[in-house]
Write a structure and sequence with these properties.
Length: 259
């Protein structure tokens, strides 16, 4: 999407506004993680959240009415993911669809030779390439108020969107600055993903949620949740992966949990 000069000016204006105090209070109540942030981080989070609130189309599904609480709570959690980035507003994601709770979607599973099995599955959220992010509000709330269990739906779905910034193929690798970084990332993430698959297979203990063993793209999304919410175990057991995640996200969540 070409970002026009007018849109850029509008965005800069939004970012300079202070956040309304009632919105700030919503963040205090619903996004436990913000209490770990320093003043500057909190200010950055609020100014980014204002952009998400203003620029995205927020749509309620199954009769859910979008309120300030919904917009502010979700926008603050996306902004947490983006704290280390200067200008990441997911311009390819124009809409955020919110269901009241877990919802049912049609699933398609290929059985090979052109056979496609269709069924229904229960979902908490989805991320579409150049399309919307879909979220269950009940899960957003549940994950928002607990910041140290390694589960966060908003971080998960938007990590998929980061993965898709370099193309439709979700491969657990977001855009990186240099070829050397890319090569190192792929070597480490491939190895760590295989490790989780084998840990799950043989019933060994693991830090990451076993859903990450479904596909390497799920591994990246699940590991992102763990990176933010259980950084100490992540760093202790997977130091190299922790290092490349810290470089990529430009954040060191372990420092927020130490001591
Ligand atoms: Zn996922």
């Amino acid at each position: 999407m070409i970002f026009s000069w007018i849109a850029r000016r509008r965005r800069d204006r939004i970012r300079r506004q202070p956040m309304r105090s009632d919105w700030s209070q919503i963040i205090d109540r619903n996004v436990a993680y913000v209490h770990r942030l320093n003043r500057d981080e909190r200010a950055k989070l609020e100014s980014d959240a204002l952009v998400f609130i203003a620029e995205k189309n927020w749509e309620g599904c199954q009769g859910l009415t979008i309120s300030d609480e919904i917009r502010v709570t979700i926008a603050a959690q996306i902004s947490l993911l983006c704290l280390g980035f200067n200008d990441q507003f997911f311009d390819m994601v124009q809409s955020i669809l919110v269901y009241p709770d877990v919802y049912t979607g049609k699933s398609h599973t290929s059985l090979g030779s052109g056979v496609l099995m269709e069924g229904v599955s229960h979902r908490e959220g989805e991320a579409w390439y150049r399309g919307p992010v879909i979220l269950s509000w009940a899960d957003v709330m549940e994950d928002g108020v607990r910041d140290n269990d390694g589960n966060n739906l908003v971080l998960h779905e938007f990590a998929h969107q980061l993965d898709m910034l370099n193309g439709r193929v979700v491969d657990g690798t977001p855009p990186l600055e240099t070829q050397a970084q890319f090569d190192r990332w792929q070597a480490i993430i491939d190895r760590e993903y295989e490790q989780l698959v084998s840990d799950c297979q043989y019933g060994r203990s693991h830090v990451f949620d076993s859903y990450g063993a479904e596909h390497i793209s799920e591994f990246f999304a699940v590991a992102t949740e763990t990176f933010f919410e259980r950084p100490l175990s992540f760093r202790a057991r997977h130091p190299e992966l922790y290092e490349i995640f810290s470089q990529y996200y430009r954040q060191n969540p372990a420092a927020r949990f130490d001591g």
